[in-house]
Description:
With 333 residues, this protein is of the alpha/beta class. The chain contains 11 helices and 12 strands.
Amino acid sequence: MTFDELRRLYEQPLFELIQQSRSVHEANWPENEVQLCTLLSIKTGGCSEDCSYCAQSARYNSGVDAERLMTCDAIMERARAAKENGSTRFCMGAAWRGVRAGTQRFEQVLDIVRNVSDLGMEVCVTLGELGPDEAQKLRDAGVTAYNHNIDTSPEHYPNIVSTHTFDDRLRTIRNVQDAGMSVCCGGILGLGESTDDRLKMLEVISSFNPQPESVPINKLMPMPGTPLAENSGVDVFELVRIIALARIALPKAKVRLSAGRTALSEEGQALCFFAGANSIFYGDKLLTAANPAVEKDLNLISRLGLSTQKPNRHLASPDADPDRPLEPACASS
C-alpha cells in the first residue's frame, strides 16, 4: 500500500479502522487461530552493531555479557520443551552482524537447524546479514522463515543504527526470498519515530514482492545502558492502530504481537487480536527481555475462544506478483 493510502486509513476514527481490519482478518484467517512461536537467543551479547535499542550491542554498558554460541544439545533441549508447551515455530536469534559460508560458526548453525527441523517444527532464524550463498544453505538445512526486521522508516533508520544501512536490510531480505525462504519482517514502535515513520515502515514492508509471511510488531522495551533507555512508552491505541493497518496492508501475513506484551493488559492484548494480530512470541523470555508466562498466555487464548495453530513444516514462500517489481520502492539511506 502507498503512504497516502495508509495515511487515509490511519486518520479514521479508531473503531472504523478496526472494523475494516477485522473484515480483512475474517476473510483471510477465518479459523481464529493464534500461532505460538518460541524465541531463543542462541548467541547472546557482544554484537559489533550499534542498534540503539539493543542491549546486546558490545558498545553499550547494558549488563548483558557476551556469550558463546549455545551447544546443539542445549538448544535441542529448549526446542523440545517449546514443542511440548505447544509452540509450532522455533525461532533462534544470534547477536552477530551476519554469517558467512565456510566458517565454523555457520556450519554449527546449519547443524542446529537440521536437528531442530527434525522435530517437525517450523524453523525461523535471525542471524543478521546474509548473502545469496548463506541464504540458500540455510534453506537447504531446513529453515522455513528468516527474520530480518526493518525497524522503522528509511528516513528515520540512520538515527537508530549507523553500522549498516537500510538498504543492507533490504538486500538480505531479497537474498532470503530468492532462496525460497519466507520472510518474517516487521518493526519497532517507540524509537522516537513520528507517525509518518510508522506508516512509511508499513509502506516498505507491504511493497515487498512477495509480501512477508509474518510481520512482528514490537513495542520498545527500553533497555538500561542503551541510548533509548529513557524513551517513553507507546500508547496501546497507537499499537492497535498499527496492527490494524498491518492487517489491512498485508492481509495474508501473520501479524505477530511481539516484544512489549509485558506492558499490555489482557484487555489490550485482546483488542490487538481483534484488530488483526494472530501470532505471539510465547515463553518466558524474548532474547534478553521478559515475556508473559506460558500458562497466562494459554489461559487468555482459551478465554477469548481462540485456538492454536498447527505447524506447517512445508511452508512455502509466498508467490511473487509478476505485475509488481521485485525490489521494494523506498528511499536509499
